[in-house]
Please model this.
Amino acid sequence: MVIILAICILPFIFMSRSRKKREKKFLQSLSKIAEKHNCNITQHEFCGDFIIGLDEIANAVFFFKQVNNKETAKYINLTKIQSCTMINTSKTIKTKNSSYKEIDKLEFNFLPTAKYKPNILLEFYNYDESLPLSGQLELMEKWLKIINDKLVLQKNKETQKHEPKKIYNATVA
Model:
């Protein structure tokens, strides 16, 4: 009985260890990207074949992805970004009796403030390359909010910088 129980539990233990080891390796890669830009990862999240992180002080996003021995590393300075949107590319699959949508790609699209700079795309999921979907969409929605909250805060600070200061003279009678 104990042997059967061990045989059933061991694969889950090995998978958990493997996941933690992979997450640690990805966090090290993400930290190296941050160090190159004199930043520190203050918040991060791992999901299968990618990790995303943020330096809240430097206002920067970092992304690392590894699929089929192909690595993608990105640094995005949010002070030079106007907006961030999610792109969900899907295709309709038709069967004999019905049709359904299948997600083909999930990306973030960063629009730079400089008009002459190209948009920056972060590909979180690609049907042809990635592992099956398992939480990527929820993670992206969470991080889209985090990033857009940072962008709004940044815009508010910039607006306050450029507003003329009001001076009030108080006279007491």
